[in-house]
UniProtKB/TrEMBL annotation:
It is found in: Endoplasmic reticulum membrane. It is a multi-pass membrane protein. It holds the Pfam family Abhydrolase_1. Keywords: Endoplasmic reticulum, Hydrolase, Membrane, Transmembrane, Transmembrane helix. Residues 22-272 form the AB hydrolase-1 domain. Belongs to the AB hydrolase superfamily. Coiled coil: none annotated. Gene3D superfamilies: alpha/beta hydrolase. GO terms for cellular component: endoplasmic reticulum membrane. One of its GO terms (molecular function) is hydrolase activity. Signal peptide: none annotated. This is Mesoderm specific transcript, isoform CRA_b. It comes from Rattus norvegicus. The gene is Mest.
Length: 286
């Protein structure tokens, strides 16, 4: 498809015959829809359609530069994708992680406001996303790049597999770290179309999240659809217990699944069975 003259990579699997259920997967930063590969087959056993995209600037989608990447644009791309697939009038289950959680918040806001072209959201499951600016702890490199200073173009050009793997591995648990092969697969998605050169632009989402906190957290707090959160508690980016305490205080109606103590920021990759069981428990509860 060509929203805004951009090519968006998308995977769309047909699963259970006769089921009307659709799930759309929204990945995190800085990776891609690859993040869902360990739970993909399990999802096809429950849903009729399992759909994932690489956001603009990520994975195997286009990575225009210079470009002002925004959460609003990514949400519009999701809406356009569903229209392209003829699913604009279907009820959609959203499953998101990290950066994808914020895109889901904007989609939820549009749903709540009954915006033209918005998705009809049946349920939302978030996971290890920094939905609260005040409890989010970005990595040092993210802090340097998000402000777009004079160092940004230098740092993005110096980024290589070694820098990437050294930065990403610590956000996994000590017993669940990715293999070198998995890291190379992730890096291939980032490096495609010179994606390392747009990372600083993509990181503007951190500033956007702070600016639009009321809009996005308010959307979560005010809707009545089922909402769930799957949490790897060893996450250094959304640390326990501060994050979980604020989440439960802000969203008392939401349910939460806390995975094993050693699971960190990428629960769907670190504990795919635990993640899948938690999600199926949520989906089957309503």
């Amino acid at each position: 498809m060509r929203p805004w003259c951009a090519e968006i990579a998308c995977a769309d699997s047909v699963g259970v015959v006769g089921s009307p259920e659709i799930v759309v997967l929204l990945h995190g930063f800085p990776t891609s829809s690859y993040d869902w590969y360990k739970i993909w087959e399990g999802l096809t056993l429950r849903f009729h359609r399992v759909i994932a995209l690489d956001f603009l600037g990520f994975g195997f989608s286009d990575k225009p530069r210079p470009h002002q990447y925004s959460i609003f644009e990514q949400a519009s791309i999701v809406e356009s994708l569903l229209r392209h697939l003829g699913l604009q009038n279907r009820r959609i289950n959203l499953l998101s992680h990290d950066y994808g959680d914020i895109v889901a918040q904007e989609l939820l806001y549009r749903y709540k406001q009954n915006r033209s072209g918005r998705l009809t959201i049946k349920s939302l499951c978030l996971s290890n996303g920094g939905i609260f600016p005040e409890t989010h702890r970005p990595l040092l490199l993210q802090k340097l790049l998000k402000d777009g200073g004079v160092l940004s173009p230098i740092l993005t050009r110096l980024m290589n597999f070694f820098v990437f793997s050294r930065g990403l591995t610590p956000v996994f648990g000590p017993y669940t770290r990715p293999t070198e092969s998995e890291l190379w697969d992730m890096w291939a998605g980032i490096r495609n179309n010179d994606g390392n050169l747009v990372i600083d632009s993509l990181l503007q989402y951190i500033n956007q999240r702070k600016k639009f906190r009321r809009r996005w957290v308010g959307a979560l707090a005010s809707v009545t659809i089922p909402i769930h959160f799957i949490y790897g508690p060893l996450d250094p980016i959304n640390p326990y217990p501060e994050f979980l305490e604020l989440y439960r205080k802000t969203l008392p109606r939401s349910t939460v699944s806390i995975l094993d103590d050693h699971i960190s920021h990428y629960p769907q990759l670190e504990d795919p069975m635990g993640f899948l069981n938690a999600y199926m428990g949520f989906i089957n509860s309503f």
